[in-house]
Known about the structure:
binds zinc ion; homodimer; elongated; five-stranded mixed sheet; 8 helices
Amino acid sequence: MASSEIDALTQALARLPGLGPRSARRAVLHLLKRRETSLAPLLRALERVNEALSICSTCGNVDTIDPCTVCADPRRDDRLLCVVEEVSDLWALDRSRLFPGRFHVLGGRLSALEGVRPEDLSIDMLIGRIARGGVDEVVLAMNATLEGQTTAHYLAERLETFPVRITQLAHGLPVGGELDYLDEGTLAQALRARRPVS
Amino acid sequence: MASSEIDALTQALARLPGLGPRSARRAVLHLLKRRETSLAPLLRALERVNEALSICSTCGNVDTIDPCTVCADPRRDDRLLCVVEEVSDLWALDRSRLFPGRFHVLGGRLSALEGVRPEDLSIDMLIGRIARGGVDEVVLAMNATLEGQTTAHYLAERLETFPVRITQLAHGLPVGGELDYLDEGTLAQALRARRPVS
Lengths: 198, 198
Ligand SMILES: [Zn+2]
Ligand SMILES: [Zn+2]
């Protein structure tokens, strides 16, 4: 149909979540017809992100600076630390502007099924941050899934020797729900009603 | 939330058809987490397309070569010429592999509402191609919309002095339907049953 370059672009776009072959073709046509207003800005944005992309060595966030925008923000409260499974969860909570503290990204959740063990997550890094002191409360903001809750309980046990309050998001999250898909109202409620881990 | 580079990338993706702010954010996270397997190939593909992008000076198709892949294909039948409104229609028909001839992209359809007049479309270019001879049949493959059909009738009148058979896609297309959204079966039927313009 089209040249190999256009095919390659269509295939690269089709692999993005939310885009299939058909919507990727439409996106490519959109880009081809709007070279200056659509293709060029996307290309520039990708180049810049690709040049600067890094994993935050403090919290595990993905950003173009290290420490990341969240860790570098002086207005945030160092005494509050919110632990999430994935970068997407950090972004969802941060977007809601409801949590004034810092974050820590585990990089997944414990899973017997998928063979994810504690050493596969950035748990030692988390414990290192807490051991250095200055944190009063650790909010375990795992997903309300079986694996998320297993991970939260595991972390609560690992952290019980530290002089920190350990809380988790209020249940009220829909069962099986994932943070990144929740509306802000639900997130706000869950965060306001956070409670100590029993 | 994120750095300005990541925001810019999110916004550039959110402007693509089929992606909104939320799916753009998910796409960006996907890209950031898969730098080598997803971000890099997309960046390379965009760079290559951007370097080579051109409008075919023969048919109006968008491609990375001029004449385009379709015009340059020696296996196609020069005696059959299919006129379409948009590049997306050319791609839809070409993808179906049902039409063995050449194409001509008008770049739109006549529209009193949108102020699109004959001189805004590549009609003179079309007439030039037909005037040079060698074309036996012109298939008017306009959309089954009021404006598409108005355009087809206008073209049929402009072409009636030429020794060519003028056909149009069989009706049977859903009313108001646009070529690019049709399944292959419907396209095949409409193409097989094409008939002379009365
Ligand atoms: Zn960070
Ligand atoms: Zn061409």
